[in-house]
């Protein structure tokens, strides 16, 4: 049945995606929830939260706030919290409860800007979509902050811990200063599908060319291989292998999709794909393996934080890549 | 603005608890030290794992993905992954309530897969706001599947209400219990979702007093064994979170209950046992344990500075008051304050009026300066505020109780301070 997860568990939701983009920017991030969404986002989807101080808050929404639409209380709470520090901006992050009562985030931001004298943005996440949707919305909401200070660094979009393991050098737009140069880069590199929309926007507005992360193939591979990850990293792995099909539970972009690539809609589709695909090798998060106990080929772990969180994380991007290369080719 | 705190003396003297201690009155600061508040399941038991205390049960969480995300990791780490299923909602479900019509079919598919005896249906904030009638869905699904269906809720929106989620789930766990012929030798222990340390003196003392059948839900491996809890003479409530469930069992099944607190001072433990004995009409002969506790108490040197948090198997104020009585200096406590804490805070204030009581979830904690120079911290959160100081986390799932709990805590304090 669509929507039923018997073997798999929920992936990082859009709320986590939005927060992953905003996390290091020095803003005041207010998740409009009762507390649970904030706990899930910070505690399970944001590894930086354990090592870096950041201003993530739960709105502490209660039943009567939701029933009576007491948005004024939220603004009062924000005003009080703002006496403790001075953020670059205020970001309101949506969750399921405000989506039920149709909270008017745009109006709250307009009032907030006037009342607090701060740039206010909102990300109308619902907790019902996957993380990359929240990332896209966050990138979109941050566009007004883009400046065009020239830089020699390459812009890297869609490079959060939910997408790829390890820290990356260069301009990842995970610091406030990066956004002052977003329009001034000479080249943009897209590391996950959530970064594509912004890369295209920057090409249109500033003429900055972009490409996706690409790999080089040095192997002859005859096995039938399926790679399951976020689309851009899966494409990169396919480049390195020189062959393979790509599947993803997350958004796939038509520009990079090849004939046999498939966007998965749920675990039933995943089980069917493996059953009918006749693959020799599957590379994917260890969690996906739970749903295909009958698969008799080789399963190579290719973990993604947005799927299994910290459970299978490598220490660095290099260690991560070395691990799947070793499993595939014994390199 | 500095991190907000109130001294024990001011809290003891004040007529009203400052709003800063009320989580619904301000934004809630999110730091690793507050994870247990924002995501109760992160440390120990949240609603999902707690409800699965019902033996031979599985849970179907009907919710947006964001409500179940922590279970992706926790259920694997805490070995209940095979008992969790998810019916994920989308926006169309929200508008049309289509998800509710899928539940029966989902339960059938789960039944085909693992044949559970009990299926717990759990809904969250969105269905609370939609006023979903989960009881009738359970009834209909039970009729169609022949399984036992248990409604359960995880309404974070009601955290400071009459039935916060963790209070409600205690009631859920006992909702299947039926009254059996009363066995005067049987008693149920209510309080936590994990068992009490089997080495606790509570067991031999109750047994010696004639209460030979001591049961805890967490130890019941089968539904039949769980149902035997229905023969208890009375329920003994060891943590206030379970008091509502105790009251419901009294209302529904006529099972009487008694509430006793978990305390750490040997004199107080002795007092609690004697009060219990008097209330039940039994004799609790704890002289030997009491003497053991007093001997251990004499070994605690005092003098050192201890910061205490709320993420531990103790009431932080009770523990602070006891340790202050013991000659320790308590510069800081991290805890919310509710009216139930005030008598203990008054006790603490007499000995340590300058103790600063911070609430970890206050937005002002973004400016917290760790400058109390403790020699030791107790509680996982206190350890996170002072990461370079030796910490007795004291939050294992095996619940300490009685003299044995105190003796083990004292040993840990000595060990970590050494």
UniProtKB/TrEMBL annotation, chain A:
Coiled-coil ranges from the UniProt annotation: none
Sample GO molecular function, one term: oxidoreductase activity
UniProt superkingdom: Bacteria
Domain Nitrogenase/oxidoreductase component: 16-146
Protein name as annotated: Nitrogenase/oxidoreductase component 1 domain-containing protein
Source organism per UniProt: Catenisphaera adipataccumulans
Lineage of origin: Bacteria, Bacillati, Bacillota, Erysipelotrichia, Erysipelotrichales
TrEMBL record, chain B:
Residue intervals of the Nitrogenase/oxidoreductase component domain: 45-414
Single GO MF descriptor: oxidoreductase activity
InterPro entries: Nase/OxRdtase_comp1, NifE-like
The protein, known as: Nitrogenase molybdenum-cofactor synthesis protein NifE
Organism: Catenisphaera adipataccumulans
Lineage: Bacteria, Bacillati, Bacillota, Erysipelotrichia, Erysipelotrichales
């Amino acid at each position: 049945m669509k929507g039923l997860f018997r073997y798999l568990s929920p992936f990082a939701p859009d709320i986590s995606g939005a927060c992953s983009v905003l996390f290091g920017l020095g803003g005041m991030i207010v998740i409009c929830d009762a507390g649970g969404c904030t706990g899930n986002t910070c505690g399970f989807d944001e590894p930086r939260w354990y090592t870096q101080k950041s201003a993530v808050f739960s709105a502490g929404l209660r039943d009567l706030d939701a029933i009576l639409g007491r948005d004024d209380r939220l603004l009062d709470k924000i005003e009080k919290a703002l006496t403790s520090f001075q953020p670059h901006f205020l970001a309101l992050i949506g969750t399921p409860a405000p989506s039920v009562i149709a909270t008017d985030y745009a109006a709250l931001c307009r009032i907030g800007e006037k009342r607090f004298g701060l740039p206010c943005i909102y990300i109308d996440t619902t907790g019902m979509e996957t993380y990359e949707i929240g990332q896209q919305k966050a990138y979109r909401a941050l566009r007004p902050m883009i400046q065009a200070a020239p830089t020699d660094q390459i812009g890297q979009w869609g490079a959060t811990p939910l997408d790829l393991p390890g820290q990356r050098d260069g301009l990842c737009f995970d610091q406030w200063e990066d956004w002052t140069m977003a329009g001034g880069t000479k080249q943009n590199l897209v590391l996950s599908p959530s970064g594509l929309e912004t890369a295209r926007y920057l090409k249109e507005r500033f003429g900055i060319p972009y490409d996706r992360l690409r790999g080089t193939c040095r192997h002859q591979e005859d096995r039938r291989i399926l790679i399951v990850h976020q689309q851009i990293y899966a494409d990169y792995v396919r480049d390195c292998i020189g062959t393979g099909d790509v599947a993803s539970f997350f958004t796939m972009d038509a520009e990079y999709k090849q004939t046999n690539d498939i966007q998965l809609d749920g675990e039933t589709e995943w089980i069917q794909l493996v059953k009918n695909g006749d693959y020799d090798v599957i590379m994917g998060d260890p969690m996906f393996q739970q749903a295909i106990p009958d698969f008799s080929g080789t399963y190579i772990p290719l973990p993604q934080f947005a799927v299994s969180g910290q459970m299978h994380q490598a220490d660095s991007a290099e260690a991560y890549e070395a691990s799947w290369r070793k499993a595939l080719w014994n390199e | 603005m500095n991190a907000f705190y109130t001294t024990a003396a001011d809290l003891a003297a004040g007529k009203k608890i400052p709003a800063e201690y009320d989580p619904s009155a301000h934004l809630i600061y999110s730091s690793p030290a507050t994870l247990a508040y924002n995501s109760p399941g992160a440390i120990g038991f949240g609603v999902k794992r707690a409800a699965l205390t019902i033996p031979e049960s599985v849970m179907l969480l009907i919710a947006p993905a964001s409500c179940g995300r922590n279970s992706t990791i926790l259920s694997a780490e805490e070995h209940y992954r095979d008992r969790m299923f998810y019916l994920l909602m989308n926006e169309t479900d929200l508008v049309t309530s289509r998800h509710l019509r899928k539940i029966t079919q989902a339960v059938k598919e789960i039944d085909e897969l693992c044949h559970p005896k009990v299926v717990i249906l759990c809904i969250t904030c969105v269905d609370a706001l939609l006023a979903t009638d989960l009881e009738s869905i359970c009834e209909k699904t039970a009729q169609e599947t022949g399984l036992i269906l248990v409604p359960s809720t995880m309404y974070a929106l009601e955290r400071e209400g009459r039935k916060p989620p963790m209070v409600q789930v205690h009631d859920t766990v006992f909702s299947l219990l039926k009254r059996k012929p009363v066995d005067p030798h049987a008693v149920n222990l209510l309080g936590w979702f994990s068992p009490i340390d089997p080495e606790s003196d509570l067991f031999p003392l109750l047994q010696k007093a004639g209460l030979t059948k001591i049961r805890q839900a967490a130890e019941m491996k089968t539904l039949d064994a769980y149902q035997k809890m229905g023969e208890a003479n009375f329920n003994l409530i060891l943590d206030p979170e379970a008091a509502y469930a105790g009251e419901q069992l009294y209302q529904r099944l006529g099972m009487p209950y008694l509430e006793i607190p978990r305390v750490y001072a040997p004199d107080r433990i002795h007092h609690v046992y004697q009060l219990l004995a008097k209330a039940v009409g039994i004799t609790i002969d704890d002289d030997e344990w009491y003497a053991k506790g007093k001997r251990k108490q004499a070994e605690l040197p005092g003098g050192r500075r201890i910061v205490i948090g709320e993420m531990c198997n103790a009431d932080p104020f009770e523990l602070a008051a006891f340790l202050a009585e013991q000659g320790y200096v308590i510069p800081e406590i991290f805890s919310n304050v509710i009216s139930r804490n005030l008598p203990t805070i008054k006790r603490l204030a007499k000995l340590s009026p300058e103790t600063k009581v911070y609430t970890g979830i206050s937005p002002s904690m973004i400016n917290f300066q760790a400058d109390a120079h403790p020699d030791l911290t107790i509680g996982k959160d206190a350890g996170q505020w002072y990461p370079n100081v030796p910490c007795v986390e004291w939050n294992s799932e095996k619940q300490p109780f009685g003299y044995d709990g105190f003796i083990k805590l004292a040993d840990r304090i000595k060990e970590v301070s050494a």
